[in-house]
Each structure stands twice: as structure tokens, then as C-alpha cells.
Amino acid sequence: MASSPTTVTITGAGGQIGYALLFRIAAGDMLGSDRPVRLRLLEIPQGMKAAEGAALELQDGAFDLLAGVDITDDPRAAFDGTNIALLVGARPRGPGMERGDLLAANAGIFGPQGAAIGAGAADDIRVVVVGNPANTNALIARAAAPDVPDDRFTALTRLDHNRALGQLAEALDAPVWAIRDVAIWGNHSATQFPDVSHARVGSRLVTEVLAERLGGAEAARAWIDDTFIPRVAKRGAEIIAVRGSSSVASAANATLAHVRDWVLGTRGGWTSAAVVSHGEYGVPEGLVSSYPVTSHDGTYRIVEGLTLSDAARARFEASVAELEDERDAVRALGVL
Ligand code: NAD
Ligand code: LMR
Question: What residues does CATH 3.90.110.10 cover in the chain?
Fold first, then answer.
């Protein structure tokens, strides 16, 4: 077992996703069964009791890998020396709240948390923002930590990626592991573009196999445009409608997979993550956009050189336009 524990800070640790994350991290599902972890639970005062209860249960789990649990409502203490930051806690949209109100409330959370990361996190800090609007919250946090390399700030679109895999596995009657090179482009919102144009099942293009199963290329195209893309892009709303609250276990599972692949590397094929753009595929520099990515040597890298059809590019650009609107709304608040 590696000797010194990795410090993992979870914000909103007393909430639903926090509860689904903590025990799996302690069990080694994120960093592997040879890496001890120290957990830092950041909550607001109203959430402290729930975090304290989770910490009692963590103790009762008697996890071999768990080197300690700290609970705090102070971001500076939460991020001091931390290696991995899972920014889950966010302000949900309340009755009568406009999008601008939501962005303002979250700027008040992710700005100070970004500053605390900049001030005290470990040199190898890696941040994944889960709390919505995830891409723009990551943009805000990153702007508040100018001395931290921008490739350390990411937002979660792995859940969308996994949702796409789940839908394709069902439509193709194939196991998830046989499907590769799916991509999510853009924002973690209903404008995202889930893209199967480069995807393969086994050695064959997904689009070809869909055409065979559905009775031709036109039928495959119609299924992708009218069923697959909206189902994946609006899956969050579907879960809320069916469960009565937003996704929890699948979101936690995707968060663990995002960090695991980031730290340990992707093996064959791509995954999707929202990362800071340096202009790749025409996305304005600095926006946090989802791309197909691979990870090697502990760094997520955008898969470059892919050809996008005019229709694909139009979908991606629409999602990027939404990211620009969110950035402009945050700028108007004087946050960036
Ligand atoms: P939840 O309401 O159960 O928990 C949120 C927790 O965050 C609460 O305990 C709250 O006290 C805490 N919190 C609020 N402000 C905080 C702050 N400033 N510092 C620390 N903690 C704070 O919500 P949940 O179901 O766990 O979801 C959390 C977020 O994740 C939501 O924004 C949700 O929309 C988002 N989400 C994102 C994805 C994704 O794929 N990116 C998927 C599912 C959910
Ligand atoms: C999800 O994708 O499940 C979450 O982001 C919740 C939502 O509002 O869609």
C-alpha cells in the first residue's frame, strides 16, 4: 500500500451525492485499493450535522484505506494541502429564481472556493466541478485561482458520456465495454452534443451497425437525431421526473470514474470531460467545454483532429454559445 494518504476534499459532503461518494472513495473505488485517503468534508452550517453523521458511518465502515476524516465549514481549512477537490455543493435553483440569480448565488460559492484552492491546495491539485451549472462554476473557480495551471480545473460530463454508452448498449444489444469513442461536446445541459459519428462497437462503426439493425442509414440517422441525442441530453430532467430528485448514485459513479481515469489514465478509447479550452475546435479560449479526451501521465488531453460534419458542428456551436452566454452573465456580475 502507498504510504502517504491522498487528501480528497468533498464540498456538499452532507448532501445526496456526497453520501454516495464518501463510502466508495474510502473503499478504494476512486484511486485504487492501494491508496490510502484522508477525507475533508466541507459543508455550510446547515449541512454540518449531515456531514457529521456521514463521518460516524465512515468510522463504522472500518475502511482499511481511510486515514482520517475532517469536517469543516471553512473553505480555507477544507482545501489546505488537498490533492483532489470534488466540488459538489452548489446552490440549487429555488422558486422564482432566474438563471442570473442562480449564477450569482453560485459565483458566491465557487469564487471563494477557487481562491481557497489557489491559496492552499497541494501542487498536484486536481479539481472536478459537479455542482450545477458545472461548466461555468468551473470557469468561476478557475478564474479565482490564477496561479494554478488551468489544466487542473475540470467539470463533470462523464455522466453524460456514460448515459450515451448506456443508450447505445441497449440499442445495439451490445455490452458497454465493447463500445468506444463516443463523445460529449459542449455544456452539461440540454444543449450538449452527444456524438456517435466516430464511435465503434467492436471493430465496426456504430452508425453502420445501427443502420443494419434499424433498416438503413436514414433510419439510423433519424434514431440518432430524434431519440438518442435528446434522450441523453435531457436524461437529467428524465431522472428528476421519475425519481422526484436529481441523479445521485450515477452522478457519484461518474465523478469517481472521471477522477480515476484522470489520475490512473484512460486505457484504449476516449472518455469525455469538460476542460479549459485553448481554442480547440473553435471554442473561445478559457471556456470550460466538454470534449472527447484521453488521459496519460495524469493529464487530460483533448482528442484533436476529428472531423465534424456541418450538422455536428452546428450542434456543438449552439452549446458553446450557451457557455458564452453563461460566461457573459457572470462577467456582468463583475465576477470574472
Ligand atoms: P444536495 O442538495 O443533496 O446536496 C448539496 C449539498 O451542498 C448540501 O448538503 C448543501 O448544504 C451543500 N452546500 C451548499 N452550498 C455549499 C457551500 N457553499 N459549501 C459547501 N457545501 C455547500 O444536492 P446533490 O443531489 O448532492 O447535488 C449536488 C449538485 O450536483 C447539484 O448542483 C446538482 O445539480 C449537481 N449535479 C450535477 C451532475 C453532473 O453531471 N454534473 C449530476 C447530478 C447532479
Ligand atoms: C443531471 O444531469 O442529472 C444533473 O445535472 C441534474 C440536472 O438538473 O439535470
Answer: 158-328
Q: Please state, in angstroms and rounded to a whole number, the distance separating the CA atoms of residues 330 and 216.
A: 46
In sequence order, which residues have a C-beta less than 8 Å from that of residue 84 and are 6 or more positions away?
Answer: 6, 7, 8, 9, 125, 126, 127, 259, 263
Residue whose entry in the numeric block shows the C-alpha cell 432566474:
98
Half-sphere exposure of 61 (CA within 13 A, CB side): 20
Check if CATH label 3.40.50.2300 holds for domain 6-155. no
Ligand 1 site-directed mutation target among 42, 139, 246, 253, most atoms within 8 Å of CB: 246
Q: What's the alpha-carbon Rg for the chain, to the nearest Å?
A: 20
Q: What percent of the chain has pLDDT over 70?
A: 99
Predicted TM-score of the model (pTM): 0.97
Q: Residue 282 has which C-alpha cell?
A: 473553435
Per-residue burial over 112-148, b = 16 or more CB atoms within 10 Å of its CB, e = otherwise:
ebbbbbbebbbeebbbbbbbbbbbbbbbbbbbbbeeb
- State the cell numbers at 112: 471563494
Measure 101 CA to ligand 1 centroid, in angstroms: 17
Domain at 158-328: CATH code = 3.90.110.10
Q: Quote the pLDDT of residue 2.
A: 60
Task: Tell me which ligand sits closest to the C-alpha of residue 159.
Answer: 1
pLDDT digits (tens, 9 = 90+) for 73-103: 999 999 999 999 999 999 877 777 777 788 8
Within the chain, which residue ranges are assigned CATH 3.40.50.720? 6-155
